[in-house]
Amino acid sequence: MSNISVQQIDDVVIKFAGDSGDGMQLTGTQFSNNTALVGNDLSTFPDFPAEIRAPQGTLPGVSGFQLHFSSNRIFTPGDACDVLVAMNAAALKANLKSLKKGGIIIANTDGFDAKNLRLANYPDGVNPLEDGSLQPYQLHTMDVTKMTREALKDVNLGMKEKDRAKNMFVLGFLYWLYDRNLESTENFLNEKFGKKQDILDSNLKALHAGYNFADTVEAFSTRFHVEKARMEPGTYRSITGNTALAYGLIAASQKANLPIFLGTYPITPASDILHELSRYKNFGIRTFQAEDEIAGITSAIGASYGGHMGVTTTSGPGMALKGEAMGLAVMLEIPLLIINIQRGGPSTGLPTKTEQSDLLQAYYGRNGECPMPIVSASTPSDCFNAVFEAFRISVAHMTPVIFLSDGYIANGAEPWRFPQSKDLPAIPVKFKKGLEEGEEQFLPYHRDENLVRPWAVPGTPGLEHRIGGLEKQNITGNVSYDPENHQLMVRIRQEKVDKIADHIPPQQIELGPEKGKVLVLGWGSTYGAIKSAVLELLAEGHAVAHAHIRYLRPFPKNLAEILHSYDKVLIPEINNGQLIKIIREQFLIDAVGYNKIMGVPITKGELVTKIREML
Amino acid sequence: MSTATIAPQALTAKDFATDQEVRWCPGCGDYSILKQVQTIMPGLGIPKENIVIVSGIGCSSRFPYYMNTYGMHSIHGRATAIASGLKAVRPELSVWVVTGDGDGLSIGGNHTIHLLRRNFDINVMLFNNQIYGLTKGQYSPTSEENKVTKSTPFGSIDHPFNPLALALGADATFIARSMDRDPKHLQELLKRSHAHKGASFLEIYQNCNIFNDGAFEIFTEKGSKMEETLFLEQGQPLIFGAQKNKGIRLDGLKPVVVELGGEYSASDLWIHDEKDFYKAQILTRMFDDPRIEGHLPRPFGVFYQAFRPTYEEQLNFQVESAISQKGPGDLDKLLAGRETWTIK
Q1: How large is the ipTM?
Q2: I need a surface site. Which of A33, A227, A593, B104 has the fewest CB within 10 A?
């Protein structure tokens, strides 16, 4: 029996970092799921290179997974780490700056041999594990490779395959350190490798070896335990943004009784939505991997025209390619969802890094006067509700809707108190069934009080009609080049989108007083950082508030009033200032921006500093 | 299973015309094609609400406005992709795509080949006039080399596409060629396109009398037609010529013109077989520039027909079998996933 004590702590940030072939994303995901199951609140931030396998051992090849877990409510993956797991020299070098002073380093010595040190650009003869430079930290070294091989000496696999289980050794080690049991990962491995007995054995053995090693060597004098978080009662699961988004689409489809057709082209970081949806054919989901981004959206338009819910998913560059077809959907006035998981741009930009830089593209990036509603999500689990709303608006108002998420929330995970199907609202869908009494001919652009035209799908007798991208005569939908008619139609299409403001909830103040000194106004993935920063300043007694916009077009009707209730408005964005342009233009207020364009999220700390400057 | 159906009222060509004034240039070949389509539609036995015509952009793409069916005049090059999405979710509809040489082979070339390889049961009618008409006279991807147009004052240096070879290269399951000036032939091939289960690609030579008048004159006009064209008929030898005195014989893999009556008789000739993929490749390559001495005649008719499952059948089969194996999706189960925890 060891004499190691278990210490209660509230809050931990761990970063797993290694070569992109080291399995750090899997390790991080497994630790996150395990963390969720013990009832901690958590938030994750996977950060990986665009290359599938960048040159091994180099700085560009480092893949990281940051995980924040706590017995309190948390809203971000954490500004700085308490623990850094470094599988090689490059991983240490790339991530040391994000480790708190006094933090724990767990280093795999095998990744610090002469070759790895050279690849990580350490000067000749310098090994950070040995030169005392890591003195401000608690350094724990172990030869993971050697011990994994040793643990697997009876397994009938080649050395390369055995080395692949290194990450499980590390995971086992950390499970010991944080007082966890191995069951959830054992189940996962059984399911994943059940049919490949040798690989299953090697992973299980490495996992146990890591755990037992930690227990035996007493490298740490204490183990840490993080109590269950004090969260709202209910049943939770862990969820990433892209999965929540896929589920939100399925839920909306079920509640609308309207099958989904996803026309899409693979692109990072949106592809996981295709992967996820393609598994659920028994929900009536049809997925179509098109030949390009344009065929992705246009096939979806074809499906919507046929009476299904057309959806297309993409990221910035693909969004640019879809612009013309979005214009067609605006002219056709049919339901359609265009989902953009934003990433760093312009051009190919930073494919695996996050950015909120397509808001102006969503607003203005099309030819002609081409208004489209825009809905955004603020956290991984929020993708569910937000996309459900986008679906509802699209069907109710016969309009294409743009949905904005980004790489940060798409890949990040958090606990989710998932809803019950019965608690989700039904989404009414109205197809025109034929000519009504007294109706002599079908008028495809005859509108209701919300300026919404009827959805008449092929196969309906008596409603044969032609639509297209040419300007339409009001009401009849016939082609018209009449000047007055064009102006009228442009205004009607704008008014139709504006009227959606009557059918969305008013803007809420997330935190803080209804009037005060500084309003921090955000949208999308900055939610967690803003909320954490504002919470800290509120605790200090400052009159600071947080409002987060979900409905970006049209804005909620009370937004003007809210904006004018504070002395100053701060708009933090992971871009060069996009929402701020729209807010300044529409509301004529002198909002201040806080802009970070580094491909990484804004941290709580930097926001606190910025807000303080404004107080 | 038998269900009582109400016999649709007998339709006529007129029922397929709309109240919109047809706005092609007087003398345009599109008028004939529209007329042939309207003529054959009643005979297909499909209620007109189940017919959808999707087009892109260009002169030919105005077509849907003149057909009293469902129709979409979409954006440049994308009709094939839009039609694919529609057919994927509504397999019971009869979907027709009207496109041109610019729309379907240039800006929309990518979608055309992918529709064909996927084998959606869609009828693609490609109106080929070898010119850009709607933008007023630039060369197209099917224009002949050295063509002088507004955008090629020194002659075009582009090598033209061979549309049927391209379609066959994309593994289309029905490939055919017809012309605006032969109404009977065109009607016949429209019916064959419709009858084919799978993607049909029908190239229609269409005269643009404003910007490229006479492009196909050699194939369509009385004086030269019989000598310059070769009408394919299943099981029949490849015979052509005003006197029916010439034929095509295969010398190894090379088609050669032979005179009949002397050394060769009809039994020496190539017998057309629409199912023969290898011969179809040679047929599509009978694409000589008619300005060159000793050129081969241009084939018209059905070059090739094959059968493989359609995309929409397989897609919907996957959906149905997923439902029958797993049962209809249970949303609550999906949302809960495998691992949950409860906070009290």
Answers
A1: 0.96
A2: A227
Q: Which helix (H) or strand (E) holds A583?
A: helix A579-587
| Annotation: CATH topology of A516-614 | Rossmann fold (3.40.50)
Q: Are A33 and B339 in contact (CB under 8 A)?
A: yes
Q: What is the mean pLDDT of residues A148-177?
A: 93
> CA–CA separation, A74 vs B338, rounded Å?
24
How far is CA B212 from its chain centroid?
21
Instruction: Note whether B47 contacts A: Cβ–Cβ < 8 A.
Output: yes
Return the biggest CA–CA distance within chain B: 100
Token pair belonging to B120 = 């959606």
Query: What is the pLDDT, as a whole number, of residue B4?
Result: 47
Burial A499-517 (b: 16+ CB within 10 A, else e): ebbeebeebebbbbeeebb
Chain A: residue whose CA lies nearest to B320: A282
Q: How far is CA B84 from CA A110, A274, A325, B54, B174, in A?
A: 54, 18, 15, 10, 16
User: B343 and chain A: CB distance < 8 Å anywhere?
Assistant: yes
CA distance A248 to chain B (A): 9
B 237-276: CB under 8 A from A: none
Calculate the average pLDDT of chain A. Answer: 95
Closest to A275 in 3D by CA, of A341, A191, A354, A320 = A341
Q: Say yes or no: do domains A5-226 and A237-423 share a fold.
A: no
Identify the architecture of domain A237-423 in CATH. 3-Layer(aba) Sandwich (3.40)
When pLDDT is averaged across residues B164-190 and rounded to a whole number, the result is 98
Long-range contacts of A451-455 (CB under 8 A, 24+ apart): A451/A492, A451/A495, A451/A496, A451/A499, A452/A333, A452/A396, A452/A397, A452/A398, A452/A496, A453/A333, A453/A398, A454/A430, A455/A307, A455/A334, A455/A335, A455/A398, A455/A429, A455/A430, A455/A431
- Check whether B6 has a pLDDT greater than 70: no
Mean per-residue pLDDT over chain B, rounded: 95
Predicted local distance difference test score (pLDDT) of residue B252: 94
How many other C-beta atoms can be found within 10 angstroms of the C-beta atom of residue B148? Answer: 12
Predicted local confidence at residue A1, as pLDDT: 45
Among A464, A467, A470, A476, most B C-beta atoms within 10 A, so best to mutate, is A464
In whole angstroms, give the CA distance from residue B271 to residue B260.
15
A170-192 CB burial, b ≥16 within 10 A, e <16: bbbbbbbbbebebebbeebbeee
Q: Residue B100 in contact with residue B134, Cβ under 8 Å?
A: no
CA angle A15, A16, A20 (to 5 degrees): 135
For A57-79, write each residue's pLDDT tens digit.
999 999 999 999 999 999 999 99
Residue B124: its H or E element: strand B122-128
Domain ranges of chain B: 13-215+309-317
From A461's Cα to the closest Cα of chain B, the distance in A is 5
**Looking at the complex, does the CB of residue B341 fall below 8 Å from at least one CB of chain A?**
yes
What is the structure's pLDDT at A51? Answer: 79
Q: Do A605 and A386 touch, CB atoms closer than 8 A?
A: no
CATH code for residues B13-215+309-317: 3.40.50.970
Query: What's the mean pLDDT in A163-171?
Result: 95
Please, which residues bridge with residue B301 across strands?
Answer: B177
User: What residues does each domain of chain A span?
Assistant: 5-226, 237-423, 516-614
Burial of A301 (0-12, 13-18, 19+ CB in 10 A): buried
Q: Find the mean pLDDT for residues B204-212.
A: 96
Of B83, B110, B114, the CB nearest to A302: B83
Rounded mean pLDDT of B279-288?
97
Residue A2 has pLDDT above 90, yes or no: no
Question: Which residues, 6+ apart, have CB-to-CB distance to A393 below 8 Å?
Answer: A373, A375, A399, A401, A500, A503, A504
Phi, psi of A606 (to 5 degrees): -70, -30
A5-226: CATH topology = Pyruvate-ferredoxin Oxidoreductase; domain 3 (3.40.920)
DSSP assignment letter at A10? S
